[in-house]
């Protein structure tokens, strides 16, 4: 018996939908029962067999998906609100899809969900690789190559942000500057590799003695700085003392030798400006004040704190 024109049309539509290199499915918007799944979907998720969309297309679901977009597809009157486009990583295949969801009238008149999902995994992987490369390049640009702590560029960028926050919330911030005493002698007597080993150890001593919120950096050569949010002068001085002792008491081991080292420190705090009736200092002013204190230590024989 030949097909009716309606059957022929339905068969043609099914053939077209089954030929698409994209997922096409229809689900009841209230019961979530899968009413149609094209060949692309059946080949990856299996036959619907009267199951609900979240039982077929996703995994580890005990009910309708929390990320279901049905609420975007109907307006306040219960009618279709148009096409909703979004991106999603499928929980079964791990593939990324761009989804075009829309509420349409089914053959029996009820409103159903139609989704057409195109695999965009290659594009997403490229985007993610580019983002990872961007983040890595940013990290490299902000990281001292030798010691792997912040470099001067990162210190100024992060430090200016920290001081703005300190000013906004009326909190103190302190700055410690220090450099290694007679560092040139280490390079001259033991070679630059020995000097590099000392700088790496100093950076490690810094990071092991500060908080996650503190900003430590190698400003250049043998000069280091630490910016301390929510820290008054006595607490900053206490940290400088701990670091001063740690450097003096932990010589760097290099090629079977112990390379002792001391450092000179300058410490300042934003409270010094506020208490004097001045406005909150900018980072350059804070650095200059700490540098002057550091210079006074050097002028008095080095290996101390001011």
From TrEMBL:
Swiss-Prot/TrEMBL cofactor(s): Mg(2+)
The reaction(s) this protein catalyses: 2 GTP = 3',3'-c-di-GMP + 2 diphosphate
Domain of life according to the entry: Bacteria
GO molecular function, a single term: diguanylate cyclase activity
Gene3D superfamilies: 3.30.70.270, PAS domain
GO cellular component: plasma membrane
GGDEF domain span: 171-306
The EC number(s) this enzyme carries: 2.7.7.65
Group of enzyme by EC: transferase
UniProt-listed GO biological process terms: cell adhesion involved in single-species biofilm formation; negative regulation of bacterial-type flagellum-dependent cell motility
Protein name, per record: diguanylate cyclase
Organism this protein belongs to: Venatoribacter cucullus
């Amino acid at each position: 018996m030949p097909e009716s024109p309606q059957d022929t049309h339905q068969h043609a539509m099914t053939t077209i939908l089954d030929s698409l290199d994209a997922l096409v499915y229809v689900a009841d918007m209230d019961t979530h029962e899968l009413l149609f799944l094209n060949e692309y979907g059946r080949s990856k998720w299996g036959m619907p067999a009267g199951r609900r969309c979240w039982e077929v297309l996703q995994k580890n679901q005990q009910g309708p998906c929390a990320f279901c977009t049905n609420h975007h597809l109907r307006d306040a009157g219960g009618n279709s609100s148009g096409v909703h486009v979004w991106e999603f990583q499928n929980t079964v295949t791990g593939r990324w899809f761009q989804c075009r969801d829309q509420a349409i009238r089914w053959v029996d008149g009820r409103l159903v969900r139609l989704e057409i999902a195109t695999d965009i995994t290659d594009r997403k992987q490229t985007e993610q690789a580019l983002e990872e490369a961007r983040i890595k390049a940013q990290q490299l640009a902000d990281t001292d190559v030798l010691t792997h702590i912040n470099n001067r560029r990162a210190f100024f960028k992060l430090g200016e942000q920290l001081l703005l926050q300190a000013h906004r919330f009326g909190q103190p911030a302190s700055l410690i500057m220090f450099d290694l005493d007679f560092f040139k002698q280490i390079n001259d007597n033991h070679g630059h590799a020995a000097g590099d080993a000392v700088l790496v150890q100093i950076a490690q001593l810094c990071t092991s003695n500060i908080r996650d919120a503190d900003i430590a950096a190698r400003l250049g050569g043998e000069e280091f700085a630490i910016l301390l949010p929510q820290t008054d002068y006595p607490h900053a001085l206490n940290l400088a003392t701990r670091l001063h002792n740690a450097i003096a008491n932990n010589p760097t081991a290099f090629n079977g030798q112990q390379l002792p080292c001391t450092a000179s420190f300058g410490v300042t705090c934003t409270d010094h400006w506020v208490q004097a009736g001045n406005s909150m200092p900018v980072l350059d002013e804070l650095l200059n004040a700490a540098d002057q204190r550091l210079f006074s230590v050097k002028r008095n024989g080095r290996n101390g704190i001011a």
